[in-house]
Design goal:
Shape: elongated
Number of strands: 6
Low-confidence stretches: 54-78, 202-207
Distance between the termini: 51 Å
Largest sheet: 6 strands, antiparallel
Strand content: 25-35%
Number of helices: 4
Strand order of the largest sheet: 1-2-3-4-6-5
Length: 216
């Protein structure tokens, strides 16, 4: 028996819609190993957004991404400046889940490094969650039972690493149940959200930008 014969048609349809997603070209998207214990069937994608190297043509950067490039001072390894990273996991249980409220569940993770002064912003978590909700709404991706956690991560170095500057990251872990097996719009919305964390799209009026710093 072919291995695909054991995969539910609904999950195969969902995979097909993911392949049709039109994600931003600044996003480096690739399949990664999926978690084996969360659901009978799963697929996972990893994404990274890097700042373009000095003198390299690319999409104009706005807000925090532009600040990150300015701080880089045009060194040769600018192309390796990571602005944001994330994971997109699609889970499927043919028998459904009362917790999910359906047969599918999308689990996501996004992380971006900030300037230290942004770490004390009380609205930081609210901003991150708002970007998720707005991305889904803008792409008309119907969903329910959304939940998530925004975390500020402070890193300090000591001893022989004491000269390394401290850093503050924002992490958003979220999940929601898509209304159907057509999850193309959900992946497109998520890819836009990763780029928003990276500072690539123009920021709407009234939204606090996440100010990034260069990773060392």
């Amino acid at each position: 028996m072919n291995a695909l014969d054991q995969v539910p048609p609904e999950f195969l349809h969902a995979l097909g819609t993911l392949r049709k997603a039109q994600c931003r070209r600044e996003l480096r998207l690739a399949e990664i190993p999926a978690p084996a214990r969360l659901a009978p069937f799963a697929v996972a994608l990893g994404a990274e957004v890097y700042a373009p190297g000095a003198g390299t043509p690319g999409t104009p950067l706005h807000g925090p991404a532009a600040m990150a490039l300015a701080a880089a001072s045009g060194t040769e390894d600018d192309g390796g400046t990571e602005l944001a990273t994330g994971r997109f996991i699609l889970l499927h249980d043919p028998e459904g889940s009362e917790v999910w409220g359906g047969e599918f569940r999308i689990v996501t993770y996004i992380r971006a490094e900030l300037e230290p002064e942004m770490g004390n912003d009380e609205m930081l978590g609210t901003v991150a969650w708002t970007w998720l909700v707005e991305a889904l709404e803008n792409h008309k991706a119907p969903y329910r039972a959304a939940g998530g956690t925004a975390t500020r991560v402070l890193s300090e170095s000591f001893g022989t690493l004491s000269e390394r500057p401290g850093s503050i990251d924002i992490e958003l872990r979220a999940s929601w149940t898509p209304a159907s097996s057509d999850v193309r719009a959900h992946l497109e919305a998520w890819s836009d959200m990763v780029c928003t964390f990276a500072g690539l799209p123009p920021l709407p009026d009234g939204v606090t930008p996440l100010t990034h710093r260069r990773r060392n």
